Structure formats: structure tokens, C-alpha cells
Amino acid sequence: MTKLRTLADMLGASWIPSLSMVQARLMRPFYRMTFLAAAARSGLLAELRGGRRLDRAGVIRALRAHARPELIGPWLDIGVEVGVLARDNSGAYRLRGLDGRLLAKDPSGVAVAGLLEVALYHRQAIMSAPRFAVEGGGLNHADQDPAVIARSTRLVQPLIESAVRDTVRDHEPRTWLEVGAGDGHYAQYAAAADPVLEVTCLEMQEELVDTMAQRFASTGQRSRLRARFGDIRDVELDEQYDVVTLHNLLYYFPEDQQCDVLERCRKLLRPNGTLLLTTSVPGKVTSVSALDLWFRCSDFGSPLPDEHGLEEALNTSGFRDVRMYRPLSAFSLVAVTATNPA
Which part of the chain is the Methyltransferase type domain (predicted)? Predict the structure, then answer.
């Protein structure tokens, strides 16, 4: 009788309807996304791709989880509960959901990086903004994984490649400087579009400079592609270039430094040289709004630029013939070309 009364009290509690709705519509998808992100970040997706199965001991070995191996079993159980994993009678785990199997096809690729950006950084900004508004403070460079960011920025890769391709075709450059080159993908793309183009990649994250150097060496492109460590604001470069590019980079600088950065880029251009700048801009896409919020919360960056403000900053920095367009109108990414006047 006591248990029945307890059950009745529980079911009649005023919070039960709202809690049931939250559990069904919000909590389970959140747990599922979080586990998928953790599985990708830890390497589990890569270990289970292609239908591979591993028991708990096999997962511990594969992930090198030797410091606290007792955590792996309960962690895997959550993966089963949210439908990402299945466990057979022998205790072996495999990927169950379609989302996990698709992500596992390229566990270090763009889609996984996009998931990690949402799970790690967008969630962080949405949770932190009210606290920062009350207490002050902000996010910093250490709150981002450079490798994840370098890959996730390639979510708009075809749009940026289109702008790069057009610039190579229209201006026939012989020297090219990419500022904030990330993992070097767009530099390689530009070099592939013109067999005599020489590209210098400037990057302020040392691990990405090392990644680029290894990548260029492994593809036999080291003679035409060079990776260099440095910050555009103070690096010393002893030449001028036909083209200088910045891809999704301007909002990494405070607003009061952006004109200085653009002027610095202009001075690195030869007379009549071309700046190519691509950037996300505010729009009606939630992921872009969350990206904008993250940089508003940061202690080093700035909000995503709007198109009018961007054009004004370029003119203030001494550029002329500013041309702004969207490679595809449905996406919140603009490409800008501007000329360093002779």
C-alpha cells in the first residue's frame, strides 16, 4: 500500500508533465549528441567503423584508457542506452545508429569536426553568456582545439574553394600569402589550380604549422608551399604578394584592431595586388548565430562582421575596388575582393 501511495504521489507531482516532455524531446537527443561527440573525440568511432566489434577490454586497449579503465564500462553503457551503440550477448560493442556509422566513415573529417564544434564550443557559449554578462570574464584561445577548428571551418569548403578558384583565374597571381592558414587546405587548393603559383602560409598556432609542413612534404609540394609561424600583426615578411587571403579569420581579432590587420595585409600586397577575404556573416542560421555568440564571449575576438561594416573597414584601410558577393545566396558566407591601389 505504501508503494502504491508513493507511486501515486510521484505521478501526481506537479513537475512530472514538464519533466516527461523534457526527457522525451530534449534530454535523450542531448545525451546522444554528447556521446557521439565523445566517441569521435576519443577515437571510439574510428575503432568501430566498418562494422568492427570490440568488447570492453578491447575498447580500453584501443583508447589506451589505462589510467582509470573502470570508467569505460559505464561510459559505453550510456552509448547503448541512447542508441549509439549496441552490445551483443558476448559483451562486444558495435555502432548501432545511422548517424554514428556515417560519422565513422571519416572520423577525423569535417562532419565530425562540425559536431565537436557544436557540442564543445557552441554549447559552451550559450551556457556561459549569462554568467559572463553578470560576472565578467570571457573565453580564450585555450578554450578551442586548433585542429578541430581548422577542420570545422571547412564546412563551407566548396564556397571558399569557389572564391579561391575565381581569384586564381581572374588575377593569374604568381605569389600568394594565406593569413591564418589553418591546416593548409585552401593553400593547397590554390597551388593545385596554378602549377607555377608559390604560396606562403602564415599561422599563429604552432601545431598547425607543423601539420602543414608535414602535409606539404608528404605530397611533394614543399618547394611551392611554405608554412610559417607568425602573427600578421607583428610578423616580419620580406616580400610583397600578388594575392593575400584571409578565410574566416577577421573575427579572431578585436574590432579596434581589424583595420590595422587589414592595412597590414594591404601593405604586404604589391601595387594592384588583390585581397581575398571570406567570412561568415550574421544571418538566420542557428549554428552561425552560436559561432557569433562564442566570439562575442571571447576575450580576444569580436562579433562576426556585417557586410556594411566590412566594406567600411576595407575602405578605411586603404583598399579600393571593393567587391562583395555570396558564392551561394542561401549561405551566410561572403567573399570579398579588394585592390591595393598603385
Answer: 177-275
Four-CA torsion 111, 190, 251, 301, nearest 10 degrees = 80
Strands 175-179 and 241-247: parallel
- Which cell numbers hold the place of 236? 616580419
C-alpha cell at 225: 608551399
| End position of a domain, from candidates 104, 139, 168 | 104
Bridge partner list, 325: 335
- pTM higher than 0.90: no
Distance, CA of 83 to CA of 165 (rounded, Å): 42
In the three-class reduction of DSSP (H, G, I as helix; E, B as strand; rest coil), residue 288 is classed as: helix
CATH of the domain at 311: 3.40.50.150
Which residues of the chain carry a pLDDT beneath 70? 1, 5-16, 19-21
Contacts of 18 (CB under 8 A, 6+ apart): none
Are residues 206 and 335 both part of a single domain? yes
Of 104, 119, 135, the residue at which a domain comes to its end is 104
